[in-house]
Amino acid sequence: MARGGEFERVFERLKGILAPYGRRLHVCADDARDFGVDLAPEGQRDPTTWFGGVRINKRYVSYYFMPIYVEPALLEGISPALRRRMQGTSCFNFSSVDEALFAELAELTRLGFERTAGDPGWGVARREEHGMAHRKAMSEARQR
User: Fold this and answer.
1) Distance, CA of 87 to CA of 62 (rounded, Å)
2) Whole-number Å distance between alpha carbons of 25 and 102
3) How far is the C-alpha of 93 from the C-alpha of 96, rounded, in Å?
4) Residue 68 per-residue DSSP state
5) Which of 40, 109, 124, 125 has the fewest CB atoms in 10 Å of its CB?
6) Which DSSP category does 72 fall into?
7) What pTM did the predictor assign?
8) Could you tell me where the DSSP H helices lie in 25-131?
């Protein structure tokens, strides 16, 4: 099982995929174990505005990518190898660097960014369009 420096290498490589979007959107976390990007600036954030993040966990490094949660069509055509890395609907777990899968994940992230167009209201709109269960965050976002 990978430990120590390997997880830091995985984290830095996955952060490198997500960090360019932080320059276009809003970095909401940035430390040695956690990096996150949000569609909305601080004070306007809710769970529907989170774009993605990378986190070092005990057994793996997770890459969270929220556009696929409300736009599952983004996953059409991903490789079986990348799909095996999925846990839940919007998380990919890695314990070592895999350049082929990271390249595929980078392309998926690019496509997701293009779909969101950096719009903080995108998540709420897509949930409503897909008839997804309403969450507290959605009702709060609509009240703004």
Assistant:
1) 9
2) 21
3) 9
4) H
5) 125
6) G
7) 0.86
8) 67-70, 80-84, 99-116, 122-129
Using DSSP, state whether 74 is helix, strand or coil. Answer: helix
pLDDT in tens, the chain (144 residues): 446 689 999 999 999 999 999 999 999 999 999 999 999 888 888 888 899 999 999 999 999 999 998 889 999 999 999 999 999 999 999 999 999 999 999 999 999 999 988 888 887 777 777 776 544 444 444 444
The two structure tokens encoding residue 16: 């490198």
Helix/strand/coil percentages in the chain, nearest 5: 50, 20, 30
Residues in the chain: 144
- What is the C-alpha to C-alpha distance for residues 27 and 21, in angstroms, rounded to an integer? 8
Contact 67, 114 (CB under 8 A): no
**Residue type, position 130, single letter:** H
CB 42 within 8 A of CB 132: no
Q: Which residues 6+ apart lie within 8 Å of 35 measured at CB?
A: 11, 15, 18, 19, 22, 27, 29, 53, 54, 55
**What separation in angstroms does the CA of 110 have from each of 16, 46, 118, 123, 141?**
13, 22, 12, 16, 25
